[in-house]
Amino acid sequence: MATTDEVLHAVRDATYPAGKDDLIATAQAAGAGEDVLKALRTLPTEDYANAQEVARSVPTEEEPTDARTAAEQARQNATSRVAAGEREVPPDPTDY
């Protein structure tokens, strides 16, 4: 399995936002190995705003092997999937 550094190196020339297919095509053009391409093929089909989002989403050999650690990391890295304009905004504490 590929490392995070190998994946990021393969997509260094990507133009963001980039979809899964764009990232795979960029990696292929960069001559990425099969391990890197396999890791990119496991990405969810969505647009990635930057390389950091790719790094968080792609499975690599640094991934935890036990389920408890994996679940904990998933909770920490979870995004709300709600557009910023649609999120409920808490009241300003200075308004009281």
Structural class: mainly alpha
Total strand segments: 0
Shape: extended
Could you name the ranges where pLDDT drops below 50 across 5 or more consecutive residues? none
- What is the total domain count? 1
Helix content: 40-55%
Strand content: under 5%
- Spell out the helices and strands N to C: HHHHH
Number of helices: 5
Measured distance between first and last alpha carbons: 54 Å
Sheet with most strands: none
How much is the average pLDDT?
A: 82
**Which radius of gyration do the C-alpha atoms yield?**
17 Å
What does this protein look like?
The protein has one domain (4-79). It has 5 helices and no strands. The chain has helices at residues 4-10, 20-29, 34-41, 51-57, 67-77. The protein is extended. It starts with a helix and ends in a 19-residue tail after the last helix. The mean pLDDT is 82.
